[in-house]
Every structure is written in C-alpha cells, then in structure tokens.
Amino acid sequence: SLTAALAFMGGEFSLSGIPRMHERPIGDLVDALRSAGADIRYLGNEGYPPLAIGQGALRAENCIRVKGNVSSQYLTALLMAAPLWTVHQQPLHIEVEGVLISQPYIAITLAMMQDFGVTVEHHDWQRFTVPAAAHYVSPGDFQVEGDASSASYFLALGAIGAGPLRIEGVGSASTQGDVDFAKVVQAMGAEVSFE
What we know:
- With 195 residues, the chain is α+β, with helices and mostly antiparallel strands.
- Helices cover 34% and strands 14% of the residues.
- It has helices spanning 2-9, 27-35, 72-86, 103-115, 148-162, 181-187, and strands spanning 13-15, 40-42, 51-53, 63-67, 92-97, 121-123, 127-130.
- The strands form two sheets. It has a four-stranded mixed beta sheet. A three-stranded antiparallel beta sheet has the order 1-3-2, with helices on one face.
- A hairpin with a 3-residue loop joins strand 6 (121-123) and strand 7 (127-130).
- The relative contact order is 0.11.
C-alpha cells in the first residue's frame, strides 16, 4: 500500500526494507502504477523492492488497470491509496484484468474504507470507482480484527482435544473468509460456540 500511496503523493521517495522484503514480488503493482503515469524505478532486481518513486502524475483518463489473478493485495493497495489521488477533484477508476481472486479480502478493504468515510462503488468486482474529493475521516475508536487465518491453527488445536480455548478478535460478524474454518472443526465433532 505504501508504494501506491507514495506514487500518488507526488515527491521523491526511496522505498526499501529488510532483505526479506526484497524477495517479495511487486512487479504487477508497479506495472499498474507505471501504466497510469507513475515514475517508479527498481533499485535492485527487476520486479522487486527496493524502489525509487519520482514525480510522476496519473494520466488524464484517471483509470488504472491491475491484474486480478495474482494477488488481491495490489488491488487493495490501489484502493486504499486512491483518496490521495482524488484530492485533485477527479474520480479514480480501477479496473481488474482477469478474474479477481480473494474477493473477500477486497470486501474487507471496502468496508474499512467506508468506516473511514470513503465509499467505493464496484461493478461486478471488476471496476471500482473512488469518487472525486474522497478523503478519509477518522471514526474515532477503530478495532482491527484478528487474523482468521492464523486463528485456524488454534482452532485445530482445540479440535484435537487441547481445549477448551477461546479466540477473541475474530467472531461471527467477521467478513474474513477463513473464519469459516470454525465450521469445519465443528463438522469434525468439536464443540464450537460463536459470539
């Protein structure tokens, strides 16, 4: 998300990190941002951080295309950073090329953006529109859910008889897809109560 945010802000930035970060591919996000006019250069291996981000500007059509079949994280990054672009009083359109994977994570992103005052329209999960002049407004207190994927290990531990245990921060109201793992261990015979 930081790559997209810095590209939208307009300035000169170097983005690096620990060596492990330099092994994480970022090429599809960079390609999407470059196609829209962002000035991003690789400082090491092509397709991986570290990056140099310059004074690029989005092109007039205000539309960014991103691949949907690689990682939902790139679309999430563009969506979360979009209000930094829309301060220019123009809507930003983001189009997904191909099939969007991990749709529930995009739903989480849109819900969180709504909580912070930005309503994003989507058309069949293939085209997203962030309205002109969108900007974030603090909702005051904001609780971040626990990670349902990580919680699944503990659910499995309880299912094999190491319980009882209580998992907090991921409940029945969660929009994370992996919260359904609780139903899997319940079907296996574990006693599970949802709160």
